[in-house]
Amino acid sequence: MKNCLKELRAERSWSQADLAEALAVSRQTINAIEKGRYDPSLPLAFAISQLFSRRIEEVFFP
Q: What stretches in the chain show pLDDT beneath 70?
């Protein structure tokens, strides 16, 4: 699944580690999501969208 997580993270000048800490996941998980190698669980997708004040559809897309 494609996403704009890297761009959203860059807007806040956050590293992958910063985002991982905010979401209580590993930096490797953030890296895998950004590269499209891992689709987040629904609760994690909701947490990401809430953190960036966006709808899930604005963060993740086919």
A: none
